[in-house]
Amino acid sequence: MNKIEHIGIAVKSLSKAVSIYEQLLNTSCYKTETVVSEQVNTAFLKAGDNKVELLEAASEDSAIAKFLEKKGEGIHHIAFAVDDILEEMERLKANGFVLLNDVPKKGADNKMVCFVHPKSTNGVLIEICQEIKWI
């Protein structure tokens, strides 16, 4: 794993949260995106080299809606950048980690992603992500 790629924060209202985090981080939201497969609306902000991803449920039965109902607003996941997501998935499985995906899937911000079950990581949902490179 190369670095923390971003921290994902679940929010009830993306527009309210964007306003708060723009003021907090003294920066503007640089990107919003809907990830249809995950039923989530996202917004990204940068603070130096660090990124924050705000996550709002786009559907009442999405994973984010369930998270918000159970735990409320707050940190949802920590994402780590990797060079080769398939290789990293195999390494994690070989070391006993439980993956929530059998194959990587398209995520937000031009990434292929895979999640590691929080039961494998002391209660923290971990996302590994690889930049999609266009040829």
Question: Would you mind describing this structure in some detail?
Answer:
One of its GO terms (molecular function) is metal ion binding. One of its GO terms (biological process) is L-methylmalonyl-CoA metabolic process. Helices cover 23% and strands 39% of the residues. It is of the alpha+beta class and 135 residues long. The protein has a single domain, classed as 2,3-Dihydroxybiphenyl 1,2-Dioxygenase, domain 1. Strands 2-3-4-1-5-8-7-6 form an 8-stranded mixed β-sheet. A hairpin with a 4-residue loop joins strand 6 and strand 7.
Could you give the topology of this structure?
Blueprint: E1 3-11, H1 14-25, E2 31-35, E3 40-47, E4 50-57, H2 63-71, E5 74-81, H3 85-94, E6 105-106, E7 111-116, E8 126-131
Parallel strand pairs: 1-4, 5-8
Antiparallel strand pairs: 1-5, 2-3, 3-4, 6-7, 7-8
Largest sheet: 8 strands, mixed
Q: Report the portion of residues in β strands.
A: 35-45%
State the total count of DSSP E strands.
Answer: 8
Helix content, binned percent: 10-25%
Q: How many DSSP helices?
A: 3
What is the overall pLDDT average?
95
Question: How many domain modules?
Answer: 1
Q: If classified by CATH, what would the architecture be?
A: Roll
- List the helices and strands in order: EHEEEHEHEEE
CATH topology: 2,3-Dihydroxybiphenyl 1,2-Dioxygenase, domain 1
Unreliable sequence segments? none
CATH superfamily: 2,3-Dihydroxybiphenyl 1,2-Dioxygenase, domain 1
Taking all Cα atoms into account, the compactness measure Rg is: 15 Å
Structural class by helix and strand composition: alpha+beta
Q: So what's the CATH class?
A: Alpha Beta
Biggest β-sheet: strands ordered side by side in the sheet: 2-3-4-1-5-8-7-6
Q: Which word captures the global form? A: globular
Distance between the termini: 23 Å
Enzyme class: isomerase
Domain VOC: 3-131
Family: Belongs to the methylmalonyl-CoA epimerase family.
EC number: 5.1.99.1
